[in-house]
Amino acid sequence: MTIKLLAIGKTDNKLLASLITDYQNRLGHYIKFEFEIIPDLKKVKHLSETQQKEKEGALILSKLAATDTLILLDEKGKQMHSIAFSEYLQKYMNSGIKQLVFVIGGPYGFSEAVYNKAQGMLSLSKMTFSHQMIRLFIVEQFYRAFTILKNEPYHHR
User: Fold this and answer.
1) Domain for residue 53, yes or no?
2) What does the entry list as the binding residues for S-adenosyl-L-methionine (predicted)?
3) Number of Cα atoms under 13 Å in the Cβ half of residue 145
C-alpha cells in the first residue's frame, strides 16, 4: 500500500519543510509514502469562497485514481489517539487497497464534490492550526503509527 498526502500550496516555512522531509525519510523504512503539493490557485481575489473550493476540489479530484481511498483532514472529522490511528492504518493495509490518500484542503475547506468522494474524515485536534503545520503533524503521526505497529520505542504508552 502507498500512503499519499495531498496539500494545497507549498510549504513556505523552511524549518517546517525540513521537519516534514525528516519524517518523510523516516516513513520510507515502513511504507511507500508520497507527498504531493497542488499549486495555489492564481487570482483568487475575484473568486468567492465557494468558487475557490470548487476549483481546488477539481484539482484534488484530478489527482485521484478510481481505486484510491480518500480521507479528508477536516475539522468535522473523527478524532482519535495515536494508538487508534495506528490501528486505523493497519485496517486499511489489511484490506488490500493500493493507495490511501489523505488531503489537506485550502483555506476554506473542501468542495461538496470532494466531500462526496471521501471515504472518511479525520480531525487532528479541536484547535485550529495553519495548513503548513498540519502537514508536519500528520506526517509525524504516520511515522508514530508505524513505530506503534512495529512495537518500537518512539511512542511511549
Assistant:
1) no
2) 73, 105, 124-129
3) 22
| Domain membership flag for residue 93 | yes
Residue 95 is assigned to a ligand binding site: no
- Determine whether the annotation assigns residue 73 to a binding site: yes
Query: What does the block give as the cell for 38?
Result: 497542488
pLDDT in tens, 38-64: 998 888 888 999 999 999 999 999 999
22 within domain boundaries: yes
In a domain, 56, yes or no: no
Calpha distance 96→12 (Å, rounded):
35
- Tell whether 133 is in a known binding site: no
Query: Domain span at residue 87?
Result: 2-39+66-149
Per-residue pLDDT, 74? 95
